[in-house]
Amino acid sequence: MVATLDTVVVQDVPLDREVDVLRSALSRVEQRLPAGWSLLVQDEVEIGGRRVDAVVQLRAPDGSTAWLLVQVKNQLATRDVSSALEQLSRARETLGSSEPTLAVLVARYLPAATRQQIVQRGAGYADATGNLQLMLGQPALFLRDVGATRDPWRGPGRPLGSLKGPPAARVVRALIDLPPPLSVLQLVKASGASTGATYRVVELLEGEGLIERRPRGPITDVKWRALLERWSADYGFQQSNSITACLQPRGLDALTSSLSANSDLRYVLTGALAIEPELSYAPPRLAMLYVQNTAEAIARLGLRPVDSGANVLLAATDYEVVFDRPQQIGGLRAAAKSQIAADLLTAPGRGPAEAQALIEWMSANEQAWRAR
Predict the structure, then answer these.
(1) With the C-alpha atoms ordered 161, 162, 163, 166, is the resulting torsion angle positive or negative?
(2) What is the CATH number of the domain that holds 186?
(3) pTM
(4) Cβ(169)–Cβ(163) under 8 Å?
(5) Alpha-carbon span 338 to 342, nearest angstrom
(6) 217 lies in which domain range?
(7) How far apart are CA 306 and CA 303, in angstroms?
(8) Model confidence pLDDT, tens digit, residues 135-189
(9) How many domains does one find in the chain?
């Protein structure tokens, strides 16, 4: 069936059928086309014996055209992106059109990791929440928009969709810190998370292509850098903990001296001050610490709570994992490299740049920081 789309965007319906998902996503594409552009959709086209969910013709104001080959899924996992695009690639080869053709994946909701994977493969995407990106060279067209950051149709009983909370943090940290292969039962023991929570996180990460696991077997590969960035979308030093901003009037050297003199205080350093000087992006200006007892830390370290001008941030946390697998830096207890990198990714100021510098070092020196 060939038709133009009406501009009614389906938003408050379940979108259980793929045809409804396609209609909603392409309606959003049509709404964002520049003036003078038009769009024609042909559903369920067979090309050389291969079924394509939709073929879309885009027509520019000068009459030039391009084609979108579309595959639609209610849900699309990151790990399934490659196979879906391979199917469209074979259909495009069979089509043999001389006009520009772009493979496009459509789903009800596409997580950020899935969208990134699609773009890296040189394809386009659109979902029913408004996330979309289409890029053509001739006729020249670039459409990009941002929709939901969470699946609005996810309800109780659905698979895990977030890495928020201490159990998920335990599993993520263990996956980053410990080199594979790892069975799920080994991961349960190493992380300290429950068996159920561990399986849910593994299922989510496998679906997003951040880990690889043999069928009913061990985890064989962890894309730890992408996993760090994925976790930082749900966990942040200041967002996920109770923060008290303080001033050490005599500076950070006085703070480190006080920490050395109070070795029985339960704390771990994180952030820039927890990185070896030779690895530092720049001299630290802000200290970040996880502590068990904020009032005790303030008293024993000679700190003053302040509303502005802080040079120390104390984090009281429900995330016990921050104290796991610590390291010694200059005689002080520091968090594991994975925790430091995650905290810097969401830290204020130059924190994200410091995180990237640390992650580059971690990429080149995995044996130096990953636990055995």
Answers:
(1) negative
(2) 1.10.10.10
(3) 0.68
(4) yes
(5) 6
(6) 166-232
(7) 9
(8) 998 899 999 999 988 788 765 544 556 899 999 999 999 999 999 999 999 999 9
(9) 3
